[in-house]
Structure prediction request, 758 residues.
Amino acid sequence: MLRASLPVLDGVVRGSGLSAKVTVDRDALGVPTIAGVDRGDLAYATGFVHAQDRFFQMDLLRRTAAGELAELFGSSALDLDRRHRLHQFRKRAAAVLAAASADDRRLVERYTRGVNDGLHALSVKPFEYLMLRITPSYWRPEDSILVIYSMYFELQYRELESTLARALMRERLPNDIFSFLVPDVSHWDAPLDEATSPTMEMPALPATNPDWQVPLAPSGVESGAIAGSNSWAVSGTHSRGSAGLIANDMHLGLRLPNIWYRLSLVYPDAHGTLRRVTGASLPGTPAIIVGSNGRVAWGFTNSSGNHLDLVTLDDDTIGSLRYHVLGGGSEEAVREVERISVKGGPAVDLPVVKTRWGPVTQLAKKTYAIHWIAHDQNAISLRFLRMEDADSAMAAIKVGQASGIPTQNLIAADASGHIGWTLAGPLPRRLTPTDGLPVSGRYDRTWSDYLTQDEYPAKLDPPLGRLWTANNRQLSDADQDKIGGKDADLGARASQIRDDLLASDSFDERSFLAIQLDDRALWTNFWRQLLLDTLDEAALADHSRRAELKLLVAEWNGRADADAVGYALVRSFYRSMYDAWFGGLDAELGRLYPTASYRLASGRTEAVMETLAAQHAWAPPEFTDWRAFVLDRIDTSIARMTRNGARLQDAQWGLTNRAAIAHPLARILSSLRLWLAVPPDPLPGDINMPRVQAPEFGASERMVVAAGHEETGIFEMPGGQSGHPLSPFFLAGHKAWVRGDPSPFLPGPAVHHLVFEP
Prediction:
């Protein structure tokens, strides 16, 4: 039965509603090249292969966005469904589709027909439904819109929790300590067009120690979320061809199957010219998200901007349905009920109270309205499909600015050598820069409209001939306020990428891949030197473990290699410093709201800690001096690394940083985990370096390509094309991703041939 749910790879299929023949040629990795004469026919075939290889993944994406997971998994999914159903995205998806152009609706409808025909063509329903003992629901056109909404949750919803974490800190801390802990800038920043990081002063260091410092046991878990995604480009002047060269590795939570599905589409454009669009598609939609169309190549990183506000309401708003607005008046909220179906149990009703800003929620005993761009009509459109037809970097910029997607940094490079950067997706128009804290419905203003395309920040052919983005503050001028920056990354990755790009005057695909794989841990240089300086002769006297630690750190090559012992030791020391300074604060915040932490509130904790250490500040009161404090932190780190008889010399980074990428059902059916997971390979890389890597987080793809030179491009991704563990394509190509091998961007020779006849 499991084998009967494998897809059709060869032969002839009658495709309903096709205008002409379509062919699907798959290579040895299962990557399809879909060729035809009509874009709608290709959408049909794309839906068919997506459904056959990835239907359960698509189902999870639409259900995650709509808050309908309990229908599959029962009451264990109710809490997540309640949080997501609050946003009523299924209703919004229907409205988005109704407002779309006739051509866009036609494309989605053709894709939907392909999905359902692909699902029906399986001899047995996908294996996940056999295990869950449930029948899959057919695809509807609005489900493709829900898949895009799922990416809003993936890419932007963390802003709700980071805003709340800052609010909890702001209530708890004096002004000077809060300002110091949550700075806007640091010396790590790497704005575009700047060859070096600007000199930026941290806010003044508060004179007194904070009162949250308490002795803590060593922490086994690092709090906060990991940031990732890199993209950069050089103009034709700096590539070993005349075309602009682009690299993109989007870092996300990793699972099986991978979020992306490799695809190549071949069809004549409006002028009759044969066009080939190749890259990563998102199952559930007919679009190629990143890739190259032969004239322009493009990639994304999350903008880490300000896209969501928490609007403070009166505590009785949910009961009274009244809330105050700017100017002293009040309005009446609307109350609706969403019914959540639950597998194996009765349906659950969820009251939804809606204000002019958005739905109401209670967080940490306060009442807020969630004002999120995802709720607005322009949050989603299918204009991004026009990227397939863009013929220059400038045209790609214009397509991005007009698109309805979760707001991203877009970098494009064209065959003529031009490169450009802008924001793709909606940008709120704000009267004053955001401070990253909740706003008051009574006194403060959130946004009410959006920037026009002419107002978007953009860079075309910058003087340095190079562009880079890494979730950092992109700009140093007033245009940065249009994006917002409280959730921006530290900037260590961006500055390392910038310096890699400025270290050479000419690049090819392999030299770009080397930057993607750069695991030099430059961010730890400060902590490595502090550790070595502290372990002087007096500190080593009669302390053999300290002496061993110093030797291992001194001999380390400075990289987060899988076999790097020195990196694991320095990082453990850094964590012990964090625990002493902020472990107590995190404990307090966690009692107020489970996910709240200092790391979640600010992406610049490393810069703050460097300032504290440089000024020998905030040693807990039980220590007589700064030196005694640091030695205690070193000893604490040693104790952590030698628990249960472990030896310092065996503390290889890859023993901690080991792949744990698995199918969602592996969490439910633990006995099948070995069957539904990748091998537990030791992985190089970590935070704050281009090769961002954690056991379940990392590069969801690595792409390097120059438009018009796709045959020398590179593409690799974790997992494989298929979501079926019995498919030869389940993990095909995964080892290349682990090793960082330069796998071809274009699909290889066909080993399977499928024909769709009208």
